[in-house]
Specification:
globular; Aspartate Aminotransferase, domain 1; alpha/beta; 5-stranded antiparallel beta sheet; 2 domains; Aspartate Aminotransferase, domain 2; binds 4'-deoxy-4'-aminopyridoxal-5'-phosphate
């Protein structure tokens, strides 16, 4: 039973392996936007395994092909030729921004970011990085070193030399315009003083773990312009935002900027691990030593990804995310609750900043209460933010308007009970 599972976890996992909920359900089955627990209680999944399940759980149009591939050929490594990986690289070249056309396949977001940063070093022959406070890029040494959320930074011995953090263009205490001005001033200063040693700036087009923070639309154009002046590359981490999530294939399209290197993961495999970093012909030439990721783009993952791309297109998931995201955001904004301080985001990546009414400050305690009660009502939502005080709505893109009406009604009920 679930108690047994909980005690097994407590005995054999690292204590750091946290989970949501005081009384966590044991999830045993998933279908499209729904999950079911050990008692067959149904939940609508509004978190999608952190933006992974864009095409829904165990989507038959995808997993049947995955199963066929598993039976035919499981694995070879990139050192042998297989068809799915080649076809996937070709498909990606068609949808990636600008003249980005070459892809290196890996398994996790961290690994792909790490590879992207290595590529930037090789290409520029410089070794430093700029990153944003509030950003998150993984849990390897280098990706943790550019992660700007203190609670995720494991220890104090991360790399510090030639790693420069600047503020994100967001602050709860001032306008986006003002925060953007400050951020760009900091960037200019770092570039003027250290540009000769900096290979790249890495950032998410919307900070996911940082609390669903989108930047003013002209921010990244200005960032790119400043970086170019100093021969610094722009790495865009689309691990959480890619593949339709924000109402565009890639979130960077909202900003009308073409990065030098783009990193993707999560939703590409819809639950089967696969990640990528992609770049132009020219930059790819700099990765000039033999390199392979054992499992990266293996036939099972690549076949799945090909069918994910096909499904996104044939079911119009991108415009669906745009349309349903507007409906969700508007409905959340209309909830009359003193606990909601701000509703943020775009497409089906929406964050709700939760405030303690008494203290008038962000509250992770209240966020946890809301999460727990929403779970009891049959809705699994996520949380993120610097202090995990933001409700995160990142459902499979196959959710319906009815699901959205229901989750908002449930949230209204929970918030009303709080006051
Ligand atoms: N980048 C971003 C933006 C992420 O959200 C995450 C994971 N949440 C990562 C990188 C790391 O990905 P992974 O856990 O697959 O290594």
């Amino acid at each position: 039973g679930p108690e047994n599972i909980l005690s097994i976890r407590q005995q054999y996992f690292f204590p750091a392996t946290s989970h949501f909920y005081k009384n966590p359900p044991q999830i045993v089955k998933g279908f499209m936007q729904y999950l079911y627990d050990q008692d067959n209680k149904k939940y609508t999944d509004f978190y999608g395994g952190v933006s992974v399940m864009n095409c829904g759980h165990s989507n038959p149009e995808i997993i049947n092909e995955t199963a066929e591939q598993l039976k035919d050929l499981q694995h070879t490594t990139t050192l042998f030729f297989t068809q799915p990986m080649a076809l996937l690289a070709e498909e990606l070249a068609k949808i990636l921004p600008g003249d980005i056309k070459r892809t290196f396949f890996c398994v996790t977001g961290s690994e792909a970011n790490e590879g992207a940063m290595a590529l930037a070093r090789l290409h520029t022959k410089k070794n430093g990085f700029i990153a944003l406070n509030g950003g998150l890029h993984g849990r390897t040494h280098l990706t943790l070193s550019v992660t700007g959320i203190p609670m995720w930074r494991l220890d104090d011995n991360l790399m510090k030399d030639n790693i420069f953090f600047i503020d994100r263009p967001y602050s709860p205490d001032e306008s986006y315009e003002k925060a953007m001005e400050k951020s760009l001033e900091q960037l200019k200063k770092v570039l003027e003083e250290h540009g000769n040693n900096i290979a790249a700036m890495i950032l998410e087009p919307i900070q996911g773990n940082g609390g669903i923070i989108m930047y003013p639309l002209n921010y990244l154009k200005e960032v790119k312009r400043l970086l170019e002046k100093h021969g610094v590359l722009l790495i865009i981490d689309e691990v959480q935002t890619g593949y339709g999530r924000t109402g565009k294939m890639f979130c960077i399209e909202h900003y009308d900027v073409v990065p030098d290197i783009i990193v993707t993961a999560k939703a590409l495999g819809n639950g089967i691990p696969i990640s990528t970093f992609s770049t132009t012909d020219e930059i790819a030439q700099s990765f000039n030593k033999p390199s392979a990721s054992t499992f990266g783009g293996n036939p099972v993952a690549a076949t799945t990804a090909l069918n994910v791309l096909k499904y996104i297109k044939s079911h119009d998931l991108i415009s669906r995310a745009e349309k349903l995201g507007k409906i969700l955001k508007q409905q959340l904004e209309e909830i009359p609750s003193p606990y909601i301080q701000e509703v943020r985001g775009i497409g089906l990546m929406i964050g709700v900043q939760i405030h303690a009414v008494d203290e008038n400050q962000p509250s992770h305690a209240i966020t946890d209460v809301i999460l727990e009660e929403m779970k009891d009502l049959g809705f699994l939502i996520g949380k993120n933010g610097l202090d995990r005080d933001v409700l995160a709505f990142q459902p499979p893109l196959v959710v319906t308007e009815e699901d959205i009406n229901e989750v908002v009604a449930a949230l209204k009920k929970v918030l009303a009970k709080l006051s």
